[in-house]
Automatic annotation (TrEMBL):
HAMAP family: MOCOS. The keyword Cell membrane does not apply. Belongs to the class-V pyridoxal-phosphate-dependent aminotransferase family. MOCOS subfamily. This is Molybdenum cofactor sulfurase. GO terms for biological process: Mo-molybdopterin cofactor biosynthetic process. Its EC number is 2.8.1.9. InterPro entries: Aminotrans_V_dom, MoCF_Sase_C, MoCo_sulfurase, MOCOS_middle, PyrdxlP-dep_Trfase, PyrdxlP-dep_Trfase_major.
Length: 840
């Protein structure tokens, strides 16, 4: 454990000006932050308890009517809305005589409103320039810029553009946009650009507008719109980033540019004085104020009223945005200094921080409290971000990863060019997927962001996490168990300890009874992962990682009765419910759906690949699962009799089409949409059949548990059952002689194995990549930190956490497969297992 190297809590900037020490505020107002390390304030700030409580009191003691009316309740809403509008303007030091505030859904909606209006304002459309550090929502404006656009790759390019404006002869509208703070690395950009643009265009009469995206800045900094002559023409922000609640945004407009909105084409309820609905196409727009012309439809008046209480609470707890700025800047510098000093035993740095070269942590003019970085091992190789994510999840550390909605900032930090990214996209790279490192370079970043309620403990937890799991204190010991290297040792006696299938993907196991031989098919054990649950809205397969209760859905196969019996609820719980479904194909209809591989992400699978599934149409079936999980879902079955269900589907889509009525999920691609081209991989695992047969070694589980116990803080044992690894075959060793010891991880070196009296041959494939799903207790559905935390330390192979071995029936067994009797290929609990080793 590292102790904070600095007595932060006594520093003058820490909690400066707050109503109490930040720890006390947290205890009273932010109980949801207990027991977790929340470092994603740039995503959203959490809301204070008081805000919600006083909002609730406000709503329960007042009748608020729809603002567009004359009734008392309506007038109350109108009056409160107008008061809040002025209050918010003052919060940003914007004089209500010179600025107007338009309520919008969020910052993005504000940006879009400006872009739409500018497009309508001139028949030529407009020209658009944006800074490379822009959020995706600013980048998207370029699609509306009919006169072209430019992305400024640096501040210098931006400033050159501004200096050229004076001699610009064109009278067509131009819009220049940039973020006040990068949401990726927290860099703060100069507000003065807006003033420079204005003075450069004064002579030529203007028609050049500035749009400041303040969404990231305002969560931890004051925004002073000051004299309107130097302010941006348009400023957008989202309130949830400042207060946590309400979900609402604002567009602040300098009144002197109101003309931009005069030709906006659309009108909605509330923005017109009179409309002729038939006959002549005529309407009279409201002319009183900018906001009245732009706020289409009924305002989110309850949200606006909530803003009042949010402002009250915020002011009471933190005093001012300047206090928050000092507090967060101080903590960000701590994080920066401490992360950048971490080094491995060989003095290589643990963290590569993507620090903008124009800014300094600790200087609130140039840098906000956001740190973007990646981790490296002692050989200088990148740690895949999804591996960090998984471990962060089980350690209750909440950070953001990926390209964090800042495409220009991340690409330029990581050194990717446009053509390279296009190539990766064609090869299957997608936002939010698990292609972490391509060609030796990371595709995304880790982002830590700090807010008003971050405390020193959060910072210590973050540093502890990085030190414990990613800082190598000594050279890695390449320790194959000496025994397995020693050829003199008598071959141990392996046997099948238990057998299980998972008839419904990601749900509970069906343990194959002892004494019963179970058929092995080319795609795995019979009935394994034959079904799955799909979300009725998205069509995606559900997984236990997201819905841990799925392990309490326990299917069993009753071949003799021809039924799949499903029981939901904890074992022996009184409220268990059951459902029986025929093993035949009745009651299903074919659908095409996107499918995200769940537990064992394969590098060759693209999330969102189209697959065809037979969904059960009966409302009884969907209600059974939906009620238990609290998620609208239903059961679906994979098409049958295919070695690779996916490729079979691709080859013969027409037969399916003819045989079944095709039901396309809303929003889905056409069923014949070509699958993305994949790089040829050496992975031998077929696509739909993500996990042919998973073998777990009892000896390895035992070793792992010993390690967990040995490292367990204050002796608390958090050992795990072999079930968490969801293996099909658990192989154990029979120790023949006293003094014999088990051979954990011997399976790493298996090349093939023969099982049972007929010596059925299986080829060993890849080791199984693990995620935080192994932390779900399969009997209770409760998530814990182990065994993933210990696995991450002890079983990290090429940057991935691995445990267990995939295997598949050897091709030699498959010869003449269809003609022979199937029964020959079976396994049973107690069967002898004889492995061959790679180096034999
Ligand atoms: C969060 C953010 C946005 C988008 O905000 P929404 O609420 O999603 O519209 C835009 N720009 C920046 C800099 C942000 O941080």
């Amino acid at each position: 454990m590292v102790e904070s190297t600095f007595q932060g809590s006594t520093h003058s900037k820490y909690s400066q000006g707050y109503s109490a020490d930040v720890d006390i505020i947290r205890e009273q107002e932010y109980p949801l932050l207990n027991g977790t390390t929340y470092l994603d304030y740039a995503g959203t700030t959490p809301y204070a308890k008081s805000t919600i409580e006083s909002f609730s009191r406000d709503l329960t003691s007042n009748l608020f009517g729809n603002p567009h009316s004359m009734s008392v309740s309506s007038q109350l809403s109108t009056q409160r809305t107008e008061d809040v509008r002025v209050r918010v303007l003052r919060f940003f030091n914007a004089d209500p005589d010179e600025f107007d505030l338009v309520f919008v859904a969020n910052a993005t909606a504000g940006i879009k409103l400006v872009a739409d209006s500018l497009r309508d304002s001139d028949h030529r459309g407009f020209w658009y320039g944006y800074h490379i550090d822009s959020h995706t929502s600013l980048v998207g404006v370029r699609e509306l810029a009919e006169m072209g656009y430019q992305c400024f790759q640096s501040d210098d390019e931006m400033e050159v553009e501004i200096s050229k404006l004076a001699s610009n002869q064109s009278k067509a509208p131009r819009l220049l946009a940039y973020p006040a703070q990068s949401n990726m690395n927290g860099r703060r950009l100069p507000i003065r650009w807006c003033e420079q643009v204005r003075s450069a265009t004064k002579e030529s009469g203007g028609n050049v507008y500035t749009l400041l995206d303040a969404a990231s800045l305002v969560s931890t900094s004051p925004l002073d719109l000051g004299p309107s002559s130097s302010a941006p023409d348009f400023t957008v922000l989202s309130f949830y980033k400042i207060f946590g609640f309400p979900d609402l945004g604002a567009l602040i407009v300098r009144k002197s540019v109101a003309r931009v909105f005069e030709r906006r084409k659309y009108f909605g309820g509330g923005t017109v004085d009179m409309v002729l609905a038939t006959g002549v196409q005529w309407h009279a727009k409201k002319e009183t104020s900018i906001h009245e012309r732009l706020e289409d439809g009924t305002l989110p008046f309850h949200n606006i009223i909530a803003l009042d209480t949010a402002l009250d609470t915020h002011e009471r707890l933190f005093g001012s945005m300047a206090n928050i700025s000092a507090h967060t800047e101080f903590l960000a510098k701590q994080v920066y200094d401490r992360l950048s000093s971490l080094a491995h035993f060989n003095e290589r740095k643990v963290c590569q921080i993507y620090q903008p070269h124009t800014s300094t942590y600790g200087d609130s003019h140039t840098q906000g409290p956001i740190i973007a970085f990646n981790l490296c091992n002692s050989r200088g190789e990148w740690v895949p971000k999804t591996e960090v994510e998984k471990l962060a999840t089980v350690q209750d550390l909440q950070i953001r990863t990926g390209s964090v909605c800042n495409p220009g900032g991340t690409a330029s930090s990581l050194g990717w060019t446009g053509p390279e990214l296009r190539r990766h996209y064609s090869a299957g790279l997608r936002c939010g997927d698990n292609h972490d490192v391509l060609g030796g370079r990371p595709t995304g970043i880790l982002r830590v962001s700090i807010g008003a309620t971050t405390n020193m403990k959060d910072i210590d937890s973050l540093l502890n996490f990085v030190e414990e799991f990613y800082m190598e204190k000594s050279p890695p010991i390449v320790a194959l168990d000496p025994l397995t290297e020693d050829n003199e040792v008598v071959a141990p006696h392996f046997y099948v300890e238990s057998l299980a299938v998972f008839p419904i993907k990601s749900c509970g196991a069906f343990k194959i009874p002892e004494g019963k031989r179970w058929e092995v098919k080319k795609e795995g054990l019979a009935w394994d992962r034959e079904w799955c649950l799909i979300h009725q809205g998205t069509g995606a397969a559900l997984n236990q990682k997201r819905y841990p209760r799925m392990c309490l859905i326990r299917p069993s196969i009753e071949v003799e009765r021809g039924v799949l019996r499903i029981t939901c609820g904890a074992i022996a719980a009184p409220d268990q419910v059951s459902l029986e479904i025929s093993l035949g194909w009745e009651d299903t209809s074919l659908i095409s759906t996107s499918f995200c591989p769940s537990s064992s992400k394969k590098p060759t699978t693209v999330c969102g690949d189209r697959v065809s599934l037979h969904a059960y149409t009966s409302p009884v079936v969907s209600a059974f699962f939906s009620d238990f999980l609290g998620v609208p879902c239903t059961l679906a079955r994979f098409p049958t009799q295919t070695s690779s269900r996916y490729s079979q589907m691709q080859r013969t889509p027409n037969t399916w089409k003819n045989r079944f009525r095709k039901l396309i999920m809303p929003g889905s691609f056409p069923p014949d949409f070509p699958p993305p081209i994949r790089e040829g991989g050496q992975t031998q695992i077929t696509l739909s059949n993500e996990s042919p047969i998973l073998i777990v070694s009892r000896s390895s589980v035992n070793r792992l548990n010993e390690t967990i116990k040995a490292n367990g803080k204050n002796g608390s044992s958090k050992t795990v059952a072999a079930d968490v690894f969801r293996g099909n075959i658990v192989v154990a060793e029979r120790l023949a002689h006293r003094g014999d010891v088990e051979q954990p991880y011997a399976e790493d070196r298996w090349s093939s194995l023969r099982i049972g009296p007929d010596q059925l041959r299986f080829d060993a494939l890849d080791a199984c990549q693990r995620c935080q799903m192994v932390c779900i207790d399969q009997f209770t559905g409760i998530r814990r930190a182990e065994p993933f935390s210990t696995l991450a330390k002890t079983r990290n192979i090429d940057g991935k956490v691995r445990f267990g071995k995939y295997s598949a029936l050897s091709p030699e067994e498959l010869e003449g497969f269809d003609s022979e009797l199937p029964d020959r290929r079976t396994v049973m609990v107690g069967d002898v297992v004889v492995p061959s080793y790679q180096d034999d």
